Structures are given as C-alpha cells and as structure tokens.
Amino acid sequence: MFISLWEFFYGHFFRFWMKWLLRQMTGKCELQRIFDTYVGAQRTHRIGNVIQKRKIGN
Fold first, then answer.
1. Cα first-last separation, the chain
2. Are 47 and 34 a contacting pair, CB within 8 Å?
3. What domain of life (predicted)?
4. What confidence score (pLDDT) does residue 51 get?
5. Distance of CA 35 to CAs 23, 27, 29, 52, Å?
6. Under 8 Å between Cβ of 6 and 14
7. Looking at residue 34, what is its pLDDT?
8. Residue 8's pLDDT is what?
9. Can you tell me the distance from the alpha carbon of 19 to that of 11, in angstroms, rounded to the nearest whole number?
C-alpha cells in the first residue's frame, strides 16, 4: 500500500516539482542534463526511462 501511495505522489506531484526546481537551478531541461552527465549505454537507458515516464504520465 505504501508503495502505491509513493508511486502516486511521485508521479503526480513530487516529480513535477523536482524537475521544475532542477530546471530553475541549472537552466537545462531533463534531456540536456542527461546528455551532460551520462555517456554510452547509461545515457540511452536514462533517455528511455524519461520517454517511458512521459507516456505513463500523460
């Protein structure tokens, strides 16, 4: 039950505000931060996760 609540709040509230805060602090969007931080397969995996979360969220 706790995991379901966490997934709901993370997916609907916390993730949005965390991304907004990081955007304000760094001046970069989520994909730009991934490209600057990761290389190779890690980068591809992270981008896949971002796309998947966007499809689920919408």
1. 23
2. yes
3. Eukaryota
4. 86
5. 14, 14, 10, 17
6. no
7. 87
8. 82
9. 11
Query: Percentage of the chain with pLDDT > 70?
Result: 95
State whether the Cα torsion 26-28-34-38 is positive or negative: negative
User: Residue 45 in contact with residue 37, Cβ under 8 Å?
Assistant: no
DSSP H helices, the chain, are 2-9, 15-26, 30-37, 40-57
Say whether pLDDT at 54 is over 80.
no
CB 54 within 8 A of CB 30: no
- How does pLDDT run across 9-20, given as a tens digit for each residue? 877 788 888 889
